[in-house]
Amino acid sequence: MTLLIETPRDIPPVDEVMRDEKLEDALQTHGHAMVLRAVRNTLADVREALLMKSDATTTSAHYCCMNDLVRKVIVQLELWSKPLIQYVINATGAILHSNLGRAPLAASAAEAAYNAGRRYTTLEYNLEEGARGERTAAVEVLLKRLTAVESALAVNNNAAAVLLILATLARGREVVVSRGELVEIGGSFRIPEIMEESGATLREVGTTNKTHPDDYLRAIGDKTAAILKVNRSNFRMEGFTEEVALDTLATIAHQNGLPLIYDLGSGCLSRTLHDRIFEEPFVPDATASGADIICFSGDKLLGGPQSGIIVGRRCYIEAMRRHPLLRAFRCDKMTLAALETTLFLYLNPSRAHKEIPLLAMALADEDVLEKRVSSFINALNEADVPASMYSESSIIGCGSAPGCKLATPVVAIDPTLAPNPSTPDELLRELRTGEPLVIARAGNDRALFDLRTVFPEEEDALLQRLLRILA
User: Fold this and answer.
1) pLDDT tens per residue, range 275-291
2) What's the rounded Cα separation, in Å, for the pair 425 and 205?
3) Where would I find the H helices in 82-189?
4) I need a surface site. Which of 16, 55, 157, 386 has the fewest CB within 10 A?
């Protein structure tokens, strides 16, 4: 006979629950301490529920037995064991989604990171000399080939790159920068605040909308260490505006014996992608325009892992290599392995366009997308789920090419007319639970699914998830 737990006095002691044979597998999987914590939490929850009973009419709602307790313990353990960082299907149409991990890696880059993480590597070992090697040597070689520069360095993100550059070249001195380029990046971090942490003093010139060559010339003095240009990659300025061209700025800097630093931001290494989203600078063009030091992100338009890349003149980068901050900002072995593999793909542009997800998605043929969407819609309609094709726009995302809209056909579902009806918001909320997790968006009273950012091999899983909910 199963004893019902009707009052706090009926709650079994912790050790009795721990001895229940149905928890043997849980103890093997999760360990004694974690199971003990789950048991204590469960008993505390049951005790609180029983104490909250206000009258006899609600008593039956709080009945439970030992089997119920054990089930609650197991559910609690499963919840605690589920990773908070989980795989999702991105159907939003934002190729670089800040909240979903930015650029997905090429399969070969992910494999390189995996192998580097689980085995020993030649991270800092020179095979030819049998001695200690340079940590970022492999990445440097590829960056020099791809950008035609003297030297290169990789750190853990572009903000770190900016900080390292300024701390090395301008600590205690002034850096001249246009007011119109003092931008705020993600997470409320502002470029001026990051720069001030370097110990450099910002000398702002010009106005928000207009900066002229004379503004820079008047600001240069004995305390000036460098001129800085920041690419406004996360917003556009239109109308009554003017800025100094990069080559003109390089001439001003060099005539005054100063280095020109260019915080390029997103870091496009594909000429084809640059031609499509012309707002973003092409890195080799920037190096050819006379900038002495250029820095950009590895996980934006490059399509690699999170990293900050610095390219430019050897004398400046060698000074950075000796700076104590480099140790704090250096990349780990998995990041460098993934970055090296990603850069290697760029040596063959046609291969890069196929294998690097960012490039494959951004350069996807609209006719091919339309066929994928049509096939997906037909499968939904066959199950009486009302779906149609809408003309929408995908975006690059992560503050890259904010004015670039990629014309995209999307799957538009009216869930209110489905066999199992719901509102668009309810459907999207349900898709954010269960497996696979799906992140999409709503618009025009429909749930919208942009297949540009859905990998082809994910389409069936997305379709089956929608059918389970709606059909």
Assistant:
1) 988 778 899 998 888 99
2) 47
3) 107-118, 137-147, 158-170
4) 55
More confident call, 330 vs 59: 330
**Nearest residue to 395 (alpha-carbon basis) of 425, 365, 370, 358:** 358
445 vs 3, higher pLDDT? 445
Structure letter (DSSP) for residue 242 = B
The CA-based angle 77-80-86, given to 5 degrees, is 130
Q: How many CA atoms lie within 13 A of 194 on its CB side?
A: 22
Q: What is the reported pLDDT for 59?
A: 46
Q: Is the dihedral of CA 355, 357, 361, 367 positive or negative?
A: positive
Q: What is the pLDDT of residues 356-407, one digit of tens each?
A: 999 999 999 999 999 999 999 999 999 999 999 999 999 998 877 777 889 9
All structural domains of the chain: 8-81 (no CATH), 88-97+361-470 (3.90.1150.110), 107-355 (3.40.640.10)
Cα gap 30→244, rounded to integer Å: 61
Residue 92: which of 405, 404, 447, 339 has the closest Cα?
447
Q: Which two tokens stand for residue 304?
A: 């690699």
Integer-rounded Cα radius of gyration of the chain: 28
The DSSP symbol for 2 reads P
